[in-house]
Each structure stands twice: as structure tokens, then as C-alpha cells.
Amino acid sequence: MRDEVRELTALEGLALEGYRSGKLPESQVRGMLGFGTRYEVHGFLKGHGAVLRYSEADLESDIENARTFSERWLSSQTPRP
Q1: Do residues 62 and 68 touch, judged by C-beta distance below 8 A?
Q2: Which of 13, 41, 42, 73 has its CA 20 to 30 A from that of 27?
């Protein structure tokens, strides 16, 4: 069990330093650590004091995802005859 913890700690350290140095994108950090969403990656990075790289394209993508989710949710709330 201790070896597993050490391995995970080492992997997290590599992912964190790779991201901080710009050599690993968020998607690779996500894959390395087995996170299901980028929000989990953000939590991990923020928890370790890393500055998130968030571009205008990221913002546009988030806005579009929010619109899509909102439209789907609203349509599911419409009463059906």
C-alpha cells in the first residue's frame, strides 16, 4: 500500500511540474492522473498552487457548453401533453 501511495505522489509531482513548466497540457495531466473531468484537474492544480492557463477559446467553449446544457435542461422541464 505504501508503494502505491509513493507512486501516486511521484506521478502527481511529475504531472504538476510538467504542467507548470508548460510541457504538459491540461489534457495530459487529466489522462496521467485518471481524472474524469477537467474540473477535477483544475481542483488538483489549484490545490497545489498552480496557475491555470485559461484561454479565450476555453471561455468560448465553456459558454457554448453552458448554452447546450441550459437548452437541454429547459426542454426537459417543459410539460408534455
Answers
A1: no
A2: 73
Angle (CA) 32-66-79 rounded to 5° is 125
Do 45 and 27 form a contact (C-beta atoms < 8 A)? no
Identify the three-state secondary structure at position 73.
helix
Query: In the chain, where are the structural domains located?
Result: 2-77
- Could you give the 3-state DSSP secondary structure of residue 64? helix
| Residues 36-79: tens digit of each pLDDT | 998 899 999 999 999 998 889 989 999 999 999 999 998 888 77
Cα 68 from Cα 59, distance rounded (Å): 14
Q: How many residues does the chain have?
A: 81
